[in-house]
């Protein structure tokens, strides 16, 4: 790619022991319309963003049936099918969208089965490499929800199971039913509330996928200073910092703009000094 940095610079990560991806992925929530609802304002630009990511060696794409709803998965297939051999597409089920800005948990086994089969059809896949339970439903035991995913895995429709937006107790309940290979929780340099889950993933060699990985970057002076010194953006430094946090971290910055995708991927080649890492970490903790 004409000497441009690619996602390969982030190194590799194992997902479930038999799937490997470069450790900087692409989150496909933002290729939809405002409030993650409907089609994007410029569909061709969104398609080009997906293609730019793959051209830059991004081979892990995270999506969900609720993004649009259904829009993100449909555009992924439109942009990239037939898929490169090494491309890992992770999707999620367990949230329904009555309208813009509305996200309602539905962890019923029958819903999750319909959601998974719908995702398979839209993505044009026979099997989803990583299927994640999007959010625990307070009306349904996690064991029942994960049990439905375990059945789908036994049927060959799912390769690996992940969970999202969980506490340690919820994670433990899920893993008593089936092997859980990933956790996707909100985590970034400013919001460290999921630190205990990241530590658990680090110890148990579970992939940790931080969502909203580059929000609130303008509130950390040490991060802003590192960006100025290097002539890069604060978001790029935030991604570089996440990559230093643990080898189990797989950031998934997203964008519907091909040029922003390229900027995000370039963060994989930024090597922060120990002093910069320490300053950014301590500044975030002291907030």
Short summary of the structure?
By secondary structure, this protein is an alpha/beta fold. It is built from ten helices and eleven strands.
Reconstruct the topology from this structure:
Layout: E1 12-15, E2 19-22, E3 26-27, H1 43-55, E4 60-62, H2 71-80, E5 88-93, E6 95-96, E7 104-105, H3 109-123, E8 128-133, H4 142-154, E9 158-164, H5 168-175, E10 180-184, H6 195-204, E11 207-208, H7 221-230, H8 234-245, H9 258-266, H10 274-285
Helix pairs in contact: 1-2, 1-9, 3-4, 7-8, 7-10
Task: Describe the overall structure.
Helix 1 runs parallel beside helix 9 (258-266), helix 3 crosses helix 4 and helix 7 crosses helix 8 (234-245). The N and C termini lie far apart (40 Å). The strands form 3 sheets. The chain has a 7-stranded parallel β-sheet, covered by helices on one side. Helices cover 39% and strands 15% of the residues. The mean pLDDT is 95. The longest helix has 15 residues, at 109-123. It is α/β, with parallel strands linked by helices. The protein has one domain: Alpha-Beta Barrel (TIM Barrel), CATH 3.20.20.100.
SS strand fraction? 5-15%
For the biggest β-sheet, the strand order reads 3-4-5-8-9-10-11
Oligomer: single chain
Instruction: Give helix % range.
Output: 25-40%
**How would you spell out the order of helices and strands?**
EEEHEHEEEHEHEHEHEHHHH
Number of domains: 1
Largest sheet entry: 7 strands, parallel
Q: How would you describe the shape?
A: globular
Low-confidence stretches: none
* Category by helix and strand content: alpha/beta
Q: Would you count the extended β strands for me?
A: 11
């Amino acid at each position: 790619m004409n000497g441009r940095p690619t996602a390969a610079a982030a190194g590799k990560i194992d997902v479930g022991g038999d799937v490997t991806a470069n450790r900087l992925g692409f989150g496909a929530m933002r290729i939809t319309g405002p409030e993650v609802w409907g089609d994007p304002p410029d569909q061709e630009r969104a398609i080009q963003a997906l293609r730019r990511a793959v051209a830059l060696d991004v081979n892990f794409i995270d999506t969900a049936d609720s993004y649009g709803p259904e829009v993100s998965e449909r555009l992924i297939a439109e942009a990239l099918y037939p898929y490169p051999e090494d491309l890992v597409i992770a999707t999620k089920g367990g949230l329904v969208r009555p309208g813009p800005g509305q996200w309602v948990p539905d962890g019923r086994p029958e819903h999750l089965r319909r959601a998974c089969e719908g995702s398979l059809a839209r993505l044009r896949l026979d099997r989803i490499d990583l299927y994640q339970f999007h959010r625990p439903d307070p009306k349904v035991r996690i064991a029942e929800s994960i049990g439905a995913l375990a059945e789908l895995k036994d049927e060959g429709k799912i390769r690996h199971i992940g969970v999202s937006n969980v506490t340690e107790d919820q994670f433990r309940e899920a893993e008593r039913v089936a092997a859980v290979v990933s956790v996707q929780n909100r985590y970034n340099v400013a919001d460290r509330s999921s630190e205990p889950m990241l530590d658990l993933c680090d110890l148990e060699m579970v992939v940790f996928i931080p969502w909203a990985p580059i929000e609130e970057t303008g509130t950390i002076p040490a991060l802003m200073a590192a960006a100025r010194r290097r002539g890069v953006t604060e978001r790029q430094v935030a991604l570089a910092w996440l990559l230093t946090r643990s080898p189990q971290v797989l950031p998934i910055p997203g964008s519907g703009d091909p040029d922003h995708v390229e900027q995000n991927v370039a963060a994989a080649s930024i090597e922060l000094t120990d002093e910069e890492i320490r300053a950014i970490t301590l500044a975030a903790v002291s907030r």
